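Posting this for the archive.
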Amino acid sequence: MSREEVIVRFDSVSFEYGHNKPILDEVSFSVRKGTKITVMGQNGAGKSTLFKLITKALEPEDGDIHIGQGITIAVSRQVIQPDELPLTVREFFERSFDHKVYDIDPRIDAVLEIVNLHAPHDRIIKTFSGGQKARLLLASALIQKPDVLMLDEPTNNLDQAGITHLTDFIKNYSKTCIVISHDAEFLNSFTDGVLYLDVFTRKVEQYVGNYFDLLKEITARIEKENRKNAQLAKEIQENKDRANFFANKGGQMRLVAKRMREKAEELEEEKVDVRREDKTIRSFIIPSQPDLLGDILTINGFTTMNPKTHKPVTRKAKIILKKNQHLLLQGPNGIGKSTLLESLAHGTAKDAAILDGVKVGYYRQDFSTLNFNDTVYDSLLSVMEKHIEENMRSVAAGFLITGEMIKTKIGDLSEGQKGLVAFARLVLQKPGLLILDEPTNHINFRHLPIIAAALDKYQGAMVLVSHVPEFVQQIRIDEVLDLEK
């Protein structure tokens, strides 16, 4: 099989969920052997659906999907499923195969080495941190040694060391790799080409080069389309003006006026639809609970996990957060950042206390604070003190939650859409203490500066965990607690 050989091809593929949710409309593209391809597009455009069509987890309504003969495919999923949490590491990896693998233990050791994770094979999956689970998901795809490796948001929850490790691995991976990600910097370090899902036309546009090349090409195209339409608009107006002039002359001049109007109509037909760019969410603020005085959050101590021995270590601290003070929690994957945030949010932390009466707004990286059986409508109303539907819908629209989406169950949304719902809930809740665990995960990078600006201006107390330095740099941080030091 040569590098020039096409191993994945879509021919006029259409797909929709039910009759009211079209995703892809007569999409055609191809992927060649050994290339590194990025899949990009707005939240909800159908990126994960594309993966499911390639793996045949979904079938197209129309068109054909061709996979090269004998080609093996493995997907690194975004999240570990609830029924996988009680499994041991060995049982988790055994599920990656549809047959018994007798040399599973040395294979596990080899693949954990690749993702830079050290774990005994009898350790239970639920005891791992979010970042460690991300590495396990990646390893579960790699252990299959596929011809086509498909990675769905692989940098989510990874610390900087993990992202560097993953980037080096993908660069050196000799087989085909297809990656969904919103992290432009990560993607640009290895991408040969981009499949761009246009949420408006429901088409897939194929570009050569990385995301910055794509941006230049799209910008040039929009400018060209706008120039063409401006020229046509000028000619149309000239023909209409002449038509009006000759029509007033009467007699034979009316025929000339008619021809001028027909010419104007022909020119209208030549106008092109200017490519619409991804919408970004509206600028927003998260209102703080009013009349808050005193020490909103006090942390006198905390427990971390030694990533090598997996034994807890108790440490002392002296952190006091009042109104309008922001704390950044730092530390590598597995040290216990998410565990500490969860214990703070639920009031179970031994050496920490939240002021009585303070409303806590808690953004979890796995969205488990959301009830997946609720509709978006019910989820948003549930956090409001006064159920004013008009206010709720106005806030929702700012987060691109409109139309059918507001009637959709949370569990049926894409991960990125769940993130936008979670932020909309924080705006409606008006918390006094904001606890945020990796709030950039799954979110379209176009939205991130707007979210950063909102967090920067937040006037309550805030505790933030994020492994994205460019995001954190846009937010005012008053204190840093490094769990490793």
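Residues 456 and 475 are 4 Å apart (CA to CA). The first strand starts at residue 6 and ends at 17.
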